[in-house]
Amino acid sequence: AMTPSPGGAGARGAGARGDLLPSVNVASVPSQVEESWRRLPPSSDASMPIPFRGGETAVLPTSTSTSAHDEPELDVSQLDISALTSPPANGAKCVVLLVLGSFNPPHTWHARLPAIVKDALKAPSKRFPAGAHVVGAYLSPVHDGYGKPGLVKAEHRIAMARLAVAHEPGVGVDTWEATRSQHQRSLAVARALHRRVGDFALAHGASEVPAVVIACGSDLVKSMATPGHWRPEDVQALTSDEHGVVAVLRAGAEDVDTARAEASSCPWLAQAVSSGGVLFVGSGDAASSCVSSTHVRELLSTYYTDENTNERERAMTRYKERLNSILCQEVQEYIDSFNLYK
């Protein structure tokens, strides 16, 4: 039997997104990242290739501006309009959650993450002294230009993400990131959602625009602390009062104190951890929190590529229960229908 790869909505399954500075001090970049950077071909235009884990590349947009008319319509059906127009009496801040990731494919941990963060934010914290009321949540599938090996087309990942959260109240899928002309940085995605949610909220009589908070696995915060993976100023903006990051730890594998200490050792994260801009919470579900899309693809690949009929049947019996626990039936059927990951 295979051992699940640690992750969850973390390592761009919502995590290492390659949000690099346009120019990087090579001396500050770990040797393996530096070597992958040096192997990159010259850029053919004004955009710069971005190195990140495994030597993969993406393109840093020279501009993230876009006309309103070419933006996808925001799915507002999952927003709690009454909470937007009548803020909680206890003074809790209204927020919208943004879950960044490849969703390749989306699994049960991706779908459950918003609910875990929603419950955690009800409690008072440094970032939200009276707690926060989550009025909606969105999964944002990454653009095809992210360049991750094995990444299926955005149209499939969007469709699967919608199936994965179909039975999760208050959770939708935002296609803004996936439908841009090129790969976008995380901060641009968060600000675009904030602007569009804000336009909707103000148009419906809200007195203020809800903050967009990043909900993620702990791997995203670890990638933020890795030199060369993110623009420090983007990290500072995402972890400031403008947004905020809530990282869910892997049950049984991580604890809050250790996670805080590790993040605090990073110069550009220390202040955010201290001020509450980065909040670590437990998941309470050891099985689901250690699931990763990579592990799901390994299971699917093992089942579908075995040419021995008897072994294939045994593999199906062995893995079907596991697949059912990490992939909803609708997503499994979609994968079968379009012959994905085989």
Task: Explain what you see.
The protein is of the alpha/beta class and 342 residues long. 38% of the residues lie in helices and 14% in strands. It is built from 13 helices and 8 strands. The chain has helices spanning 31-38, 81-85, 108-121, 154-164, 186-203, 218-224, 232-238, 256-264, 270-275, 286-289, 293-305, 309-326, 329-337; strands at residues 48-52, 56-60, 93-101, 132-141, 171-173, 211-217, 245-248, 278-281. Strands 5-4-3-6-7-8 form a 6-stranded parallel β-sheet, with helices on both faces. Strands 1-2 form a two-stranded antiparallel sheet. The longest helix has 18 residues, at 186-203. It is globular. The two termini are 19 Å apart. The model is unreliable at 1-67 (pLDDT under 50).
Unreliable parts: 1-67
Main sheet: strands, sense, barrel: 6 strands, parallel
Basic shape: globular
Structural class: alpha/beta
Distance between the termini: 19 Å
E-strand count: 8
Order of helices and strands: HEEHEHEHEHEHHEHHEHHHH
Strand percentage:
5-15%
Based on CA atoms alone, the radius of gyration comes out at 20 Å
Q: What is the number of helices?
A: 13
- Strand arrangement in the largest pleated sheet: 5-4-3-6-7-8
Task: Kindly report the average pLDDT value.
Answer: 78
Helix content: 25-40%
Descriptive labels:
single chain, 342 residues, alpha/beta, six-stranded parallel β-sheet, two-stranded antiparallel sheet, 13 helices, 38% helix, disordered N terminus
